[in-house]
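worker-3 :: picked SDR family oxidoreductase
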Amino acid sequence: MNDEHTGAAPRCLVTGATGYIGGRLVPELLAAGHRVRCLVRSPGRLRDQPWSGDVEVVRGDVLDADAVAEALRGTDVAYYLVHALGTGGTFEETDRRAARVFGEQARAVGVRRIVYLGGLTPADVPERELSPHLRSRAEVGRILLACGVPTTVLRAAVVIGSGSASFEMLRYLTERLPVMVTPSWVRTRVQPVAVRDVLRALVGSARMPSDVSRAFDIGGPDVLTYREMMIRYAEVAELPPRLIASVPMLSPGLSSHWVGLVTPVPASIARPLTESLRHEVVCQEHDIARYVPDPPGHPIGFDEAVRLALRRVREAQVATRWSSASVPGAPSDPLPTDPDWAGGSLYTDVREIDVDAQPAALWRVIEGIGGENGWYSFPLAWALRGWLDRLAGGVGLRRGRRDAARLRVGDSLDFWRVEELEPERLLRLRAEMRLPGLAWLEMRARTDAAGRTRYHQRALFHPRGLLGHAYWWSVSPFHALVFGGMARNIARAAAEPAHRPVPTR
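worker-3 :: tokens ->
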């Protein structure tokens, strides 16, 4: 077991490594010389991370005491970066149970320190008046602090970084609406913090003295209203000045749907973000600097944080995004490959077509699908499906892609998730739109016995109940237009010299 006084590198367990912060923390810990183990429900989602070969991966769920104990055994520092937000009305109870399991098992196996990233709560506001999101974050912090293991609770408000939900919400609201009628929460003062400073505090917390067990506020040097953040974002992004007027009648629920329509952030995630802005969230102290000293130039100011985030977005260097985490309620079981699938009815739509191009050219088109490149058939139908999904509270098409040309397992891709990726051969997507069943879309590049390039496409749907069967038969008449056109246009695009999307009818 590591002794904090020896200076030896601690072994760290990271939960939530497939999420926005966790996916960025792991390489920072490795760069600092720490040994890292990741506890994840689906280890395959880490396979394509550039650091996956440098960490130990353990399969498990934070609600499973045995799995948590096994993952924690032999570790010095445990990072708790998971929450059940958006899983329904019981998310607070789920968060409560998971935190208790984690704290109890950490104490049982002798973990030296727990580090938890929570939310900054407003001063002098009774906890019962907080949003469910902030209330749950605060409760999880208290549970971990009381578990008997020295714990560092870092409390942050709005995190500004490329790909964060808060940044994406701010970016799209400002860029898409030159004139805005906004909810009253745009007048609330908050203290944003750059994601780089959040990661610095997380990494530095691994070496805190054993007698330190408390919460720390972390924030940047600027205290701004949301309105001021939008105005300053526009200035940094060199946009024309924005006209912003606030109105009092937009409730958090209405606000979240408004945000969901304008930005890629779905209402289920936008609601806790907007609810958290009802009260002023400003740091009351900066004691973290006693244990994680501020280097020159830190904490990073709001304008510089936006500038850094925009640079990464424009250079397509976004390491993780808010959508890196799976959509709550999305299926987690792997796609059965046995044709005699035992899970019940399985509807399929199969298309195969010769391609006048090398397999590598076809693969470039397949891997570049979605986002700005679109889906190669009937754009209006795809757009309408995206709008319907957003109206139903789903993610819609606006999540786009993390990278314009490259995919990896676990990436979000519009309203799909990359479930399997075999370079030059197979891309399998799992649907995360609202559906009465489970759906997948497979695209393959093949070479037949005669040496010809073949494109194989398969859509699969496992219905849930009578509504699921009715859904499939109601949309199947359009498959020839949507899926048939998609196969033809992908083949045409691969045959074009530039391998760019072709016009669709």
